[in-house]
Design brief:
Layout lengths: L2 H10 L5 H5 L6 H11 L13 H13 L1 H25 L11 H5 L5 H8 L1 H50 L3 E6 L4 H6 L5 E2 L7 E4 L7 E4 L2 E3 L5 H16 L4 E7 L5 H5 L1 E2 L2 E2 L1 H15 L4 E13 L2 E4 L13 E3 L5 E3 L5 E3 L2 H14 L2 E2 L7 E2 L2 E12 L5 E10 L6 H4 L4 H24 L11 H5 L1 H4 L4 E8 L6 H16 L12 H83 L27 E5 L37 E5 L6 E7 L2 H7 L18 H5 L8 H4 L8 H7 L18 H4 L3 H5 L7 E7 L5 H4 L9 H7 E5 L2 E5 L5 E3 L1
Parallel strand pairs: 1-5, 1-18, 6-17, 6-18
Antiparallel strand pairs: 2-3, 3-4, 7-8, 9-10, 9-13, 9-16, 11-12, 14-15, 16-17, 19-20, 21-22, 23-24, 24-25
Helix pairs in contact: 3-5, 10-12, 12-13, 15-18
Bound molecules: adenosine-5'-triphosphate.
The site of adenosine-5'-triphosphate has 17 residues, from helix 11 and strand 15.
GO molecular function: ATP binding; ATP hydrolysis activity; microtubule binding; microtubule motor activity
Pfam families: Kinesin (PF00225)
InterPro entries: Kinesin-like_fam (IPR027640), Kinesin_motor_CS (IPR019821), Kinesin_motor_dom (IPR001752), Kinesin_motor_dom_sf (IPR036961), P-loop_NTPase (IPR027417)
Length: about 850
Amino acid sequence: MEPDRVAAGASSSPQPSPAPAMFLPGQTRDHERGAVDCADPGGDLNPAPPPSPQQATVEDAAVGGDVEQEEPKKEAMAGVGEALRSFMEEFGDQGEDSIILSPRLQEICTPDRPTALRFLGKKYNNLMERYKKQVVKCSEECDPRYNGLKKKYTDECAERRRLYNELIELRGNIRVFCRCRPLSSNELARGCSSVVEIDSSQETELQFVPNEKERKPFKFDHVFGPEDDQEAVFSETVPVVGSVMDGFNVCIFAYGQTGTGKTFTMEGVPENRGVNYRALEELFRISEKRSASVAYTFSVSILEVYNEKIRDLLDESNDQSKRLDIKQNADGTQEVHGLVEAPIYNIDGVWEKLKFGAQNRSVGSTNANELSSRSHSLVRVTVRSEHLVTYQRSRSHMWLVDLAGSERIAKTGVEGDRLKESQFINKSLSALGDVISALASKNSHIPYRNSKLTHLLQSSLGGDCKTLMFVQISPSSMDSGETLSSLNFASRVRAVEHGPAARKQADPAGSLKLKQMTEKLQHEEKENAQLNQSLQLMQLKYASRENVFRTLNEKVKDAEQACRNYQQRIRELENELGNEKRASRDSARSSRPPLVPTRQRQPQGRTNSFAPPSGPSRWRLKAPAKHNKENIPVAMNKPNAGDDPNKPVGRARRVSLAPVIRQIPIQPKRRSSMAVLPSVREHLSVLNDKKAGSRLSQANMARGSLGAFGLNLVPGTPLAGHGGPVDATPDGAKFRRFDFGSSSKFTSPAPNVGMWNKMVTPQQKLGMAPAGAKLCFSIQKRVTPPHVRAKPGLGIFDPALRENMVVGRAGNALRVLNPKRRQSVI
Ligand SMILES: Nc1ncnc2c1ncn2[C@@H]1O[C@H](COP(=O)(O)OP(=O)(O)OP(=O)(O)O)[C@@H](O)[C@H]1O
């Protein structure tokens, strides 16, 4: 901007409006004031236009010529100049236009207004322009920030309120609303004044001012003044009412001196309905709103506690003698059995019920109230809900209680029945006070059962429900005493902590079912775990058994193979024997000696010179006694030392050389088998003393082959050497020990064998078997089928096991000792 134009502009424009320009960030109010004063010392806020250079010169001269006159003015302006200077400094140092660096400005020691203005010239205008731009820029920058901060602040406030409410809920305090009724016309007529001061801006506080000197503040969750209507009261109550729809138990009760508006608050009047009606209206509204997801059903019961008796106000029979008692449910809640629970489907139905109940309520006239409630009235709304998606059920109660008024008997002037009622009322209210005190001081024992009222409200006062108390007060100076005691009581109630936050109530039937299901589930889980364990065990067992089975299978296969080999071998041997037999028969036929009479006579028993039939027969051979020359039997058994073996043991008599064979009863499951035995000598080398007692067996020897071999080929068996019954037990085994070639004590001497002597083995006859090789006949305990015998458990069929069992060998024959079963010869 050019200097001329600035000067002209300045002169033509009388209002450059410096005042706003003076309110700068960082400046103090004094500075601002100083700047304003500087701009307009005479009181005019608009500064004088900057003088033109010419004017400045003239003025300079004038200043110089009239110093004395200007002296006080200069002094006054000194501070102003200083302010201006600091202002300029603040805006200075801005590049070329900076006035700080100006040597001229620095020369001015005590700048006064004209000097400064003259000096500023166009700089002032530039600065103003810059300042305005900065202000605009600043506001542009700050506005969104300001709005953001403002919003943040509002949000924070809301959050703080929410957190506070949450804190209150967590603490579980009973919420207390205070409602003060207006002064009645009666009171006004009496000239009563109000002792209660309520500041409408302070929603939670009231001052109790009984006189000019006394003033006591009380704090509640909300304070309603005389001008607050039913709607305002209910709008604060709605959140508590809504909780019952979420499954919480709720209790709302009104307490206060008689005539203070308890019934007015709870019941209201038809044209101005109270909490009861509005609460139920709200329940239906919420139900309608949630109908898509939750199905609600409502029922209502109305009762009163009159003179410590419970009366059902919905009982149409109005039977006064009907006795209702409080019982404790399994879940710890209190229940009045026999109480009418009327279902309600719409708000009209609600009003009908409420009206019906109110009509039945006991009321009477007192000095304090024309229509005074003489009982505690309780409306219980039961809300049942079922979620349509999750099928979760809940059942909750909402108690709406209008207590009877506390009253001073003397003041109310009651007598007779009214007096009795008052005493009961006061007694129960005092019990309520005791309960509250006990709860507030966290006593272990809460005296709920001292009155029917406290017993009924047990779970609503100290339990897990949301409680709201209206303390009703009268503003009248006449009632200041009662008002103060009500306020004190309400404060105590407010301090009560419920303990844990209110809990959602599940439907008892549903929860019982759920409990049963949970128990069943737990039981099944336990069983499952046990089954799993046993299954794992079985799997382990199965795996190990499978292993064993596989091993056994392999062994069986081996044994079967061995068995097949043996069978093959036996067939071969049988064939050979058959051949031998045929050959020997043929040769015998061709060289048969002539028949000669025999002097032998048949033994007493049945004699048979032929081999006994094969099969499970048992034979008892009377072994031929050893005879001396005169045919006198001598002792066969162990002779005593010194005994003459040839000494006759009895009367000499003729005896048959043929063995006496007596058939003994066949024992089932016994069989005989035969085996090719090595020669006696070999045999003796095979057997040792200990093993000799073991039974001898012929594995897989065909049963029919026994007959072919003949009994006469079996010396050493009981048939050969033992006169007693065949004994297959280990004790008898010693008798089966034989020494065919030598003089065994059980075998007949070779010359005396008689016809037996002639019966040589087919092997001997055919010369196939080594000299002295015999067939051994043994008796086994059990006849085991081939497949059983082939089992590897027997051992002898398993080559590996058999090797371990071998106790002797003779040619092809092996003598094995199976410790588990028996000793065998193969
Ligand atoms: N907030 C209010 N606004 C206008 N009138 C009120 C209010 N509160 C109470 N009243 C009036 O005061 C009178 C007494 O009220 P109410 O019967 O409800 O008292 P109360 O506490 O129930 O008495 P009591 O304990 O004897 O039954 C009634 O006529 C009622 O209309």
